[in-house]
Amino acid sequence: MQPQSDGLGFAPAEDVPLPYLQRIRDYYAGLGYGAPYEWAHYAEVPFAVLRKPLTSCRVALVTTAAPYQPDKGDQGPGAPYNAAAKFYAVYSGDSALDHDLRISHVAIDRDHTTAEDQNSYFPLPALRQAAAAGRIGALTARFHGLPTNRSHVTTLEVDCPELVRRCLEDGADAAILVPNCPVCHQSVSLAARALDQAGIATVIMGCAKDIVEYVGVPRLVFSDFPLGNAAGRPNDAASQRATLDLALALLEGAPGARTTVQSPLRWADDPAWKLDYSNIARLSAEEIARRKAEFDRQKAIASEIRKG
């Protein structure tokens, strides 16, 4: 799709951040569900400043990716949504080791990305390199996994306090949070607020700008990429380094709460990919019925796991 001409060089009208809040509201209404989901929203936003230079800070990494579970079905690149692979409690892993984390359990943009490169959503190796280069003081001994939870009460009263407790226990001065799906973006936004309230400066690396800004967070690095690539383009180390560099610079330089920096990197010259994600207007009646049945089936799987 070419930019509008008229001799002014304007970009296509859809070449703006994807409106996830409205798109998702319309999508689930089109599938036949009831009242729209109520997203978290705050007027006041906490803001913790770094208490020392970033080169002396201990930085924590928070992810919504899930440890690979071989007995839970397909979780590989291009896998369909897999509720069996979800996790429901904060977990931690050794930051010095490599890990196999997957995002088949969340609603990433499966039309335009495959999650084949873990570094595009879990920047632990890049953070290790930043520590080795002296860009940050150190990584905390553990990284932490935050559940993707639609329940505000559970996220605010269970998951966020536990995450804050672990980050404080690890001596974190700052934290980088990397979500994947729309609800992931809400979960890490609530977590960022809790961490900043506890004195730990945060920055979110995200792709759903409207959700994060609607919740209200201290700092956001927005990449206008399909969901599942908040840490940079897959198989593009330069893109991943550039995205992390923006996050670290924002930790140091944000003047106050609600500071958003947009990455200058583009996913593609043609922005038409933004028209596909959960776009009910592009689906046939048969596809809508199929998606509703599959969504109900996955909800039942998740419900059984929670009961267990």
Description:
The structure is a single chain. The protein is an alpha/beta fold. Helix content is 33%, strand content 13%. The protein is built from 7 helices and 10 strands. Helix 5 (209-215) links the parallel strand 8 and strand 9. The longest helix is centred in the last third of the chain and has 23 residues, at 285-307. The model has no long low-confidence stretch (mean pLDDT 95).
Please write the string of helix (H) and strand (E) elements: HEEEEHEEHEHEHEHEH
Number of strands: 10
Query: Helicity, in percent?
Result: 25-40%
* Count of runs of 4 or more consecutive helical residues: 7
- Main structural class: alpha/beta
Strand content: 5-15%
Mean pLDDT across all amino acids: 95
The gross shape turns out to be globular
Multimer state? single chain
Major sheet, described briefly? 8 strands, mixed
Low-confidence stretches: none
How many whole angstroms does the radius of gyration measure? 19 Å
Question: Separation of termini?
Answer: 49 Å
